Amino acid sequence: MKVLFVGDQPSRKNDNPAIAFKGTQSGVTLEKWATFLGVTYFAINSHSEPELYSSIKWAEQFNQPIITLGASAKQRVESLCHKNGLVVETYHLPHPSPLNRKLNDKPKLFETLQELKDKLTRTEK
User: Fold this and answer.
1) What is the pTM of this model?
2) Which of 37, 34, 11 is CA-nearest to residue 24?
3) What is the CATH number of the domain that holds 89?
4) Residue span of the structural domain in which 41 resides
5) H or E segment at 47?
6) Cα–Cα distance between 95 and 77 in angstroms, integer?
């Protein structure tokens, strides 16, 4: 299954601004999560509304889920979907930044990832 990850506040350490999470610790974490979830993905940052809109339209057209990373990305995706009448299956994870304290609770994070994996598996069938 292919999914769209939508993040926010890209790192200054990003190797390529055109590719979200490229060369960052957040990207390493995101790759681990994608492997656990069994998905292939592309990732964007939510700060560019035209890019975000076209990516959400793609997800809607091809019935691909969106996984928001962090509260700001979640709010932007929900707002843009509502404003434009877009209907896309959307899930939420904490931002994968190593500065995010929510990642310190490993059992809760594993539980969240497992629940999402189960939902994505049911959706795929």
Assistant:
1) 0.91
2) 11
3) 3.40.50
4) 2-124
5) none
6) 14
